[in-house]
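Much of what follows relies on a compact textual record of a protein's fold. An example makes this concrete, so a full record is given next.
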Amino acid sequence: MPSQKCDPSGLFRAGTLARIVRPWHRRCLPRIGNGVEMLLRRPIFRIALATSILLGGATASADTITIEADHWFPYNGTPNTANEGYMIDLLREIVSQSGDRIEYRLMDWDSAVPRALAGQVDCVVGAYIEDTPDHAMTSEPWGYSGNAFLAHADRIPRLNNLEDFKQLRIGAVENYSYGERIDAILEEPGVKVTRQRSSRQAFPHLVMKLITNSIDIIVEDKNVAAAAINELSMRDRILIIRDDLTEPDGVHVACTPNARGRALVQRFDEGLKTARASGRLAQILAKYGLEDWVN
C-alpha cells in the first residue's frame, strides 16, 4: 500500500467526524508523540481540532480588495472613520456578503489612477470616464458629479455663461477632470488658472485664495463643495453662485484592466443593483444627506 503523508489536509477528505480524525490520527501520532495521542483520544478535542482546521480553511480564502483615491467627501472620505463616504460604505457592504474585506487608503489622485491601471491597487473610486479611459469600469455610474462655481460673498462676479467664466481668475485642483467643456477651457491659452495640488487640503487652500482675493472663482463638485463649506463653517462667506452651466458626469469605480479587475467590476455592478432593490442604497446615501441619483 502506498505510504501516506502526515498531512492535516487529509481531514477534509472524509465524511464523518470519526473518519476525518482517526485516519490522520493513526498515520501521524507516532511522529507527534504520546501526549498529543492522549489528547486526540478525547472526543471534545477531536471536534475542536476538526472545527479549527475547517474554519482556518474558510478564513484563508477571504479576499482583500484594495481601494485608493484622494479625499473627495461625500463620495469617499477619511479611512476607518464613521463616515468614509458613501462609495466606500457601499463597497464594504457588497464584499462583506462573501466574507471579503475592503482595504481603503487615501492617495493623491494623480498617483492612485496609474497605480490602479498597473495593478498595484485594485480600484479607484469617484472616477470620470475621462479620468480612467483604459481601466475596467462599472457599467453604470455610482452617482453624478455636477460642477459648482463658488465665489466670495463680498465679491460675486458676473457668471451668466462659460464665456464669462473664461474671463475670471479660476481656482481648480491639479490633475482633476471637470468634464470635457471645463477641461477644455482650463487648457485654453490666456485663461488664468491657479491649480492646487490634489490632497485633502486642496479645497481649503483654494478657499483661502478666494478670501485673499488671489482668485475670483472656484470650480468644484457640488456635493464636495457643499460638504467642505459646511465643515469649514463658511456658508455665509463662500457661496455657490451657479451649478447649472455644465451637465453632470457619472462617477464610477475604476479597476485594473485584467481578469481580476473585470470580475470585481461585474461584482460591484450586481451589488449596486441588489443594494438599490433592497433599500440599502437609500439608507447609505441618507447618512450623507443624499438621494439615489436614479430617482
User: Anything to note?
Assistant: The first strand starts at residue 64 and ends at 69. The chain has three domains: 8-60, 64-141+253-287, 144-249. Confidence is low (pLDDT under 50) at residues 1-41, 44-59.
